[in-house]
Amino acid sequence: MKKVQLPLQTANxxxxxxxxxxxxxxxxxxxxxxxxxxQQAAWVTAVPVILGSLLRIPMGYLTNLLGAxxxxxxxxxxxLPPVYYVSIANSFIDLLIGGxxxxxxxxxxxxxxxxxxxxxxxxxxxxxNGIYGAGNIGTAITAFAAPVIxxxxxxxxxxxxYMVLLGIFILANFFFGDKKEVKVKTPLIHQIKGVYKNEKLxxxxxxxxxxxxxxVAFTVYLPNFLVSNFGLDKVDAGLRTAGFIxxxxxxxxxxxxxxxxxxxxxxxxxxxxxxxxSALLLxxxxxxxxxxTGCLTIAICAGIGNGVIFKLVPMYFQKQAGIAxxxxxxxxxxxxxxxxxxxxxxxxxxxxxxxxFMALSQIALASLIIVIWxxxxxxxALSDQVLKTTPLGMLVTDKNAKIITVNPAFTEVTGYKAEExxxxxxxxxxxxxxxxxxxxxxxxxxxxNGFWQGEIWNKRxxxxxxxxxxxxxxxxxxxxxVIQYAGVFSDVTNK
Length: 495
What we know:
membrane, NO3_transporter, five-stranded antiparallel beta sheet, alpha+beta, transport, transmembrane helix
């Protein structure tokens, strides 16, 4: 039963996303029967994203509480009425109301990313979540297939076919869903309190807002835009949109796979660098070929970025993965809600989309800077953790041999607290047992070899002498100039 969960839940996501984008994929057909303005059309395509985003937070929590099987079944049952309602819609309000509840199809994303890691070891979480995230291909299936079917049988009948698909997967989850999934019953408010003060959560929200948000935004925005701006026919526009979706979708598991093997933050540097350049290209309103190049680059970056981010979230939030996944996923969904509306408003005001794409470029550039900061901050944090937890005494001096910092083990061995020695010379520890010639040879070795190692008698704060095994390393910059000295020692008096 456990082996079935990855393919079953991935198929569930495909179906959910197929339903989620049904309005945007068929909008060019719907507006032939229902008279709506371009502004209203933007709302029709954006509204499903609202519920599909906000519901992801409770979805992640409820999955831990009730299990993926129950949440998938209930979600698909709840989708049946709005899908039918949209299929018989005859006004803008009908499309708006039905579209809002169709958003449930996008909310189920949080279910799999919360449930599936329970079945696999940590070193495979990136790839597993990437495979599940490839369920995004459901948007491509609808973008390509729905217009073809609607061209032959009409958009209303096409939408009603989705009710049959939902029925099949309600039964599939009933029979094949895992009834014995491990449950987590930590109260929601406790989980939220455990994560909301962590700045990493909101940084990941920003990253996913861009990567997944751009994926959703281009998915709902491209079909109608390609028809109206470049004069493509509806099936051609659907095919190109499906290509965008398929590229981003198939690269998502590759992004997770890469994150399992390489440093995730370095991968995100390339992702946001690509976003910055491609969005800048789109802001110049290029020809259809250059526009396709820019969109393809965004698809590549979005796919890889999505996979990488959902490797990072459980790494930083192991105990609150359900709620953290839900919040990050919700922000990604909202990232798909605002851009189509903003682009439409800007187009109505200026007559082009340049400002909107330029804004995406600048936000991506800001994210690139944040990723670089996180990378070096984590390296410093790791060094600080090593300094604090190692059982060996450590002290670092500047090039003039003035103490900059010491660790807790230094205090334990010598009796001196950090505030008592910072700014002092290491001579404060001198026992007086060694000759001047001993120290001259020590410095000679440091200058010639870059390190010195040996036994040395020093004096504790209480005046007692002790023997230590000491290693001193000269730390140099890129120009080979000494900038600091680091000493590591252990008390070997008893030995």
